[in-house]
């Protein structure tokens, strides 16, 4: 049996940076995101009679690479395969091929789409369709693959990851579907290279920042306001909230031990440019930045062409990726092998 799934990345409007339970990948706070139509992972999984699981991945603009289960970074992935196989009561190994259409390890949530696509495909290939169809349960299971952000790719549109306190209470909840609001994320790629410090390392040292406690307190009222702004489709309310949350998270990163500096010169230049677009030209665009140098420019669809035009002539921007809200992880009949 062979199954292929496609999962989108997502851009967090309210982010998390620190873990409550590292074993269950439960963060310290809820987060809210929008799925990204232009950044996706396709994964094909097939049951085989081989002695071992085989996983091959093709990162953006590269060739397929076989993953080694002995590498620490890959262990969660192989453990997820074994765990879902055990849940199904089956014993057949799997062949997995997966590829991204956007840069990995660059602050565009490649692990989110990858882990969501893999988990969904595994449930289907092992005959656990009920878990795939139950998106709340699917989101819980996706989390165990090793990425809290991946939880939010289980559903489409605007999604909140309820952090909770244990496995059952930690899951995704849809705020509004992909048809709710014509919001756009134009990603300005400043640097597509692999970042030096991954998110997992960053979560571990977040508690060394003197500003983490303040950030966690600030998030409680902010997340309520973000929910309301999405429901009301009010970008003038949403924009300042997402910029504040992004800057707050990076303040924690920069003041941890050791400090983590993800921004490049182009990142800072774009942040300033976007603010001036609003103040001088009235262009309603706002920035948010994940754990990387690339800038997500959030605007309404009617302003997306103007935003893209301005980014195109910016000397720091290597390329752009256009995204609208889209469906969560889904089945495809277009297999990779």
UniProtKB/TrEMBL annotation:
EC number: 4.1.1.33
ATP-binding listed as a keyword: yes
GO biological process: isopentenyl diphosphate biosynthetic process, mevalonate pathway
Domain Diphosphomevalonate decarboxylase-like N-terminal positions: 7-172
CC per GO annotation: cytosol
Signal peptide region: none
Pfam families (UniProt xref): MDD_C (PF18376), MVD-like_N (PF22700)
Record's keyword terms, sorted: ATP-binding, Lipid biosynthesis, Lipid metabolism, Lyase, Nucleotide-binding
Occurrences of domain Mvd1 C-terminal (ranges): 186-312
Entry keyword annotation includes Lipid biosynthesis: yes
MF terms (GO), sorted A to Z: ATP binding; diphosphomevalonate decarboxylase activity
Family stated for the protein in its record: Belongs to the diphosphomevalonate decarboxylase family.
Name of the featured protein: diphosphomevalonate decarboxylase
Organism: Candidatus Roizmanbacteria bacterium RIFCSPHIGHO2_12_FULL_41_11
């Amino acid at each position: 049996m062979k199954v292929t799934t496609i999962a989108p990345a997502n851009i967090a409007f309210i982010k998390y940076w620190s873990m409550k339970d590292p074993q269950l990948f439960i963060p310290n706070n809820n987060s809210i995101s929008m799925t990204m139509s232009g950044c996706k992972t396709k994964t094909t999984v097939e049951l085989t009679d081989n002695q071992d699981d085989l996983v091959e991945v093709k990162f953006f603009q590269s060739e397929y690479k076989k993953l080694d289960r002995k590498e620490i970074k890959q262990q969660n992935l192989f453990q997820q395969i074994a765990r879902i196989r055990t849940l199904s009561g089956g014993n057949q190994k799997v062949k997995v091929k997966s590829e991204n259409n956007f840069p990995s390890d660059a602050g565009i949530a490649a692990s989110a789409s990858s882990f969501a696509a893999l988990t969904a495909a595994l449930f289907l290939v092992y005959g656990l369709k009920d878990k795939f169809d139950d998106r709340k349960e699917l989101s819980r299971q996706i989390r165990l693959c090793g990425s809290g952000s991946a939880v939010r790719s289980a559903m489409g549109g605007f999604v909140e990851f309820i952090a909770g306190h244990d496995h059952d209470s930690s899951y995704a909840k849809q705020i509004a579907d992909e048809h709710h609001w014509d919001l756009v994320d134009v990603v300005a790629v400043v640097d597509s290279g692999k970042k030096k410090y991954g998110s997992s390392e960053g979560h571990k040292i977040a508690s060394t920042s003197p500003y983490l406690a303040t950030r966690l307190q600030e998030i409680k009222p902010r997340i309520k306001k973000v929910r309301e702004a999405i429901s009301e489709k009010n970008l003038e309310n949403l924009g300042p909230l997402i910029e504040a949350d992004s800057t707050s998270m990076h303040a924690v990163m920069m003041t941890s031990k050791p400090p983590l500096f993800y921004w490049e010169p182009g990142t800072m230049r774009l942040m300033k440019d976007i603010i001036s677009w609003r103040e001088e030209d009235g262009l309603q665009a706002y920035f948010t930045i994940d754990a990387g140098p690339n800038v997500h420019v959030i605007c309404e669809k009617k302003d997306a062409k103007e935003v893209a035009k301005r980014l195109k002539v910016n000397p720091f921007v290597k390329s752009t990726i256009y995204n609208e809200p889209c469906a969560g992880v889904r089945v495809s009949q277009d297999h990779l092998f």
